[in-house]
Amino acid sequence: MRVLVTGSAGHLGEGLVRTLRxxxxxxxxxxxxxxxxxxxxxxxxxxxxxxxxxxxxxxxIHAATLHKPHVGTHxxxxxxxxxxxxxxxxxxxxxxxxxxxxxxxxxxxxFGGALVPAGGQAAAWIDExxxxxPKNIYGVTKKAAEDLCELFFRSxxxxxxxxxxxxxxxxxxxxxxxxxxxxxxxxxxxxxLHRRVDLADAVDAHILAAERVQEIGFGRYIVSATSPFxxxxxxxxxxxxxxxxxxxxPAYEELYLERRWRMLPGIDRVYVNHRALKELAWxxxxxxxxxxxxxxxxxxxxxxxxxxxxxxGYHAQSFGQQPYPVESGG
Length: 330
Hints:
42% helix; Rossmann fold; 9 strands
């Protein structure tokens, strides 16, 4: 399989190119930035560049994007240009080239306002049937790009699968309060319960989607570590998450005490990956139970691929204690 990976210099893009090549596929990397896994330097908004990259390609994995950390540093027009116009360019060129399909890397951020229930309500059960309520230009443009993928499938027959990925970046959390209250690894391990995925598992989901896109046609999938929670846990999760986790993982408290870690007092949403498990035959390895086992054995909780790709940083410049500037007011 010959695969064009856009955004090849990013975390996901690099992970994809490395893994595809290791598995015997031919991966072509496109990015604005030069990197060891970038074959073509250029923009996804440049039709000639994209056409050139698509020669002989079977499937496109479109991971190039401006994402949440850019909201405070880039204009809304830049988001529209990259995330919407760039996706349109990729879809049109892919249709022209006759590829078997496109896998579009989206984000759980498209859900936006649907992620946090009103006070007094149970935690939100977030599956693909939840209606997105984007709360910033990032979410708006990613949802619009998803809709373009669906439009091209419905009107032109271009097969497209959309993967809504949860957190997988290794960088520090953008929430200053959380950074001050939790050790960074503590916070990330907590997130495996409801809103994080390891890079290796995210890469596997994309490759499976690329292999199945022709058969499925169109679909949206949440890509997040398998949560141990069920709908019956949602009410208590919002008010007493430690009690719920204790009932499922009695030994977790001892491991946390040894590290002076804390469980989140409440959890407001749970990402549900059931559709991806069923339709993509995806089997994520890194979930909360697996990570607890790693802690118990003194092993790394992140995949070798995540460690190889490492931390890229969100921006070339630094912003004091913040990993990136956060836009106020959405």
